[in-house]
């Protein structure tokens, strides 16, 4: 997966929600990407913000071709907690 393109998609989607990407962890061995976002105005990030960013990446990259895993969380909520929250939707 092209990291520059990924970061461009993440940044644009986060910005659309009034957020910014504060961390992006890559595990190239497994194609696992953990993204952390925060609100520009320091208010809490909500599940809709994380979901919006996640869906933007899904729309930009074919998971079957790229073979990646992605989690989007916020400062104060780690990726595992975000995944559990998404399972309840």
Record keyword descriptors for this entry:
3-stranded mixed β-sheet; 3 strands; 89 residues; alpha+beta; 26% strand; Alpha-Beta Plaits
Please give the structural blueprint.
Layout: H1 3-16, E1 19-27, E2 32-39, H2 47-60, H3 63-66, E3 69-74, H4 79-87
Parallel strand pairs: 2-3
Antiparallel strand pairs: 1-2
Question: What can you see in these coordinates?
Answer:
- The chain is an alpha+beta fold and 89 residues long.
- The protein has a single domain (3-87), classed as Alpha-Beta Plaits (2-Layer Sandwich), CATH 3.30.70.
- It has 4 helices and 3 strands; from the N terminus they run αββααβα.
- A 3-stranded mixed beta sheet has the order 1-2-3.
- A hairpin with a 4-residue loop joins strand 1 and strand 2 (32-39).
- Helix 1 packs antiparallel against helix 2 (47-60).
- The radius of gyration is 12 Å and the shape is globular.
- The model has no long low-confidence stretch (mean pLDDT 88).
Brief summary of the model shown:
The chain has about 90 residues and is α+β, with helices and mostly antiparallel strands.
The CATH topology corresponds to Alpha-Beta Plaits
How many DSSP H or I helices? Answer: 4
The spatial strand order of the largest sheet comes to: 1-2-3
CATH class: Alpha Beta
Order of helices and strands: HEEHHEH
Low-confidence stretches: none
Q: Can you give the helix content as a percent range? A: 40-55%
Going by helix content, strand content and strand pairing, the class is alpha+beta
Write down the domain tally: 1
């Amino acid at each position: 997966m092209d990291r520059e393109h990924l970061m461009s998609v993440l940044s644009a989607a986060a910005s659309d929600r009034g957020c910014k990407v504060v961390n992006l962890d890559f595990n190239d061995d497994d194609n696992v990407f953990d993204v952390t976002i925060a609100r520009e105005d320091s208010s809490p990030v909500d599940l809709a913000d994380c979901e919006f960013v996640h869906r933007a990446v899904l729309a930009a990259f074919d998971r079957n071709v790229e073979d990646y895993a992605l989690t989007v969380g916020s400062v104060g909520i780690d990726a595992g907690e975000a995944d559990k929250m998404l399972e309840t939707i």
